[in-house]
Amino acid sequence: MNTRLQKIVCAVFTAVLLTFVAGFAQSAEPIKIRLAWVVPVINWAPILFEKQGIAKHLGKSYVMEPTHFQGTPTMILALASGELEIANLAFSTFALAIQNANMQDLRIIGDEYQDGVGNYRSTEFMVLKDGPVKRVEDLKGRVVATNALGSGVDIAARAMLRKHGLDPNKDVTTVEADFSNMKAMLASKKVDIAPMAIPFALDPQLRAMARTLFTQKDAMGPSQMIMWVARSGFLQSNRAAMVDFMEDAVRAVRWFLDPKNHDEAVQIAARVSKQSPDRFQSWVFTKEDYYRDPNLLPNPDILQANIQLQQELGFLKANIDAKKYVDLSIVQEAARRLK
Hints:
The chain is of the alpha/beta class. It folds into two domains: 30-116 and 223-337, D-Maltodextrin-Binding Protein, domain 2, CATH 3.40.190; 124-220, Periplasmic binding protein-like II (D-Maltodextrin-Binding Protein, domain 2), CATH 3.40.190.10. The protein is 38% helix and 17% strand. The protein has twelve helices and ten strands. It has helices spanning 3-27, 73-80, 91-99, 152-163, 182-187, 204-209, 216-220, 232-237, 239-257, 262-273, 300-312, 329-337; strands spanning 31-37, 62-68, 87-90, 106-115, 124-128, 143-146, 173-176, 194-196, 210-215, 223-231. The strands form four sheets. The protein has a three-stranded antiparallel β-sheet. Strands 8-5-9 form a three-stranded antiparallel β-sheet. A two-stranded parallel sheet has the order 1-2. α9 packs across α12. The chain is globular.
């Protein structure tokens, strides 16, 4: 075969191969990304792509399925069993997953929100105004509510009890409840103190009957409260689709945080949560909200301090080097596309 014929054959083969690859790529199914959430609006998953046209790659390289959990601890099992792609783990459950469940392949890929940063919101622990609890020490022998044992707010409550000389395992009884039920349980005196995340904390009826005994920031300083966490194998196998997803996610987050979109964002929040827009107008996506990084970047230094506190309080056997488990390459690549 002469040189000219070899070149022709090579060119034809290359063209056929490229056509096959292109056809395969077009026929490939989008990957499923199940993104966990606990509280609507506070967590991004239920509202992230509610603004039409914002997710350029949705339905093409990936599909996103918001998946509800009562608290972050149960997400560990879902990740381990392959029933969840991205968990929004609290600093507390992330550390427990690494140390207790030995999930060394977990990687922090993005920020959801941070508690008590600067003048931004911190979760409130509330008691009845006319109730017997006037100070933290009065909680001895009483019932403390939490959304889930081992969650971020649970760790904060336990830290505050320890600060005031109380043993959270012996001096109080802890019960689990969904955030949406906290007000009713406090009003009926089934619990003596309850953590109130927004939007529940801003309920006018709650504010009329209850007061803040302390905040999460009071208990432990700023918190890298919730982070997006995935398994490294999933990230490696689906990197291109994950960059597409994170690009859409950053675009959406920036849209929601832009003050010029506030009124429309309020309407979306109200629709998704099935509440009145008045419940969101004054705070959502403002400094009255939790801090949300516009580039979905978590704060590893705050996270490390949170984990160290867990270890000091006896919730972890040893400290963990959090930065070993942070992989921001995907979200950073996604953000560069938007410049």
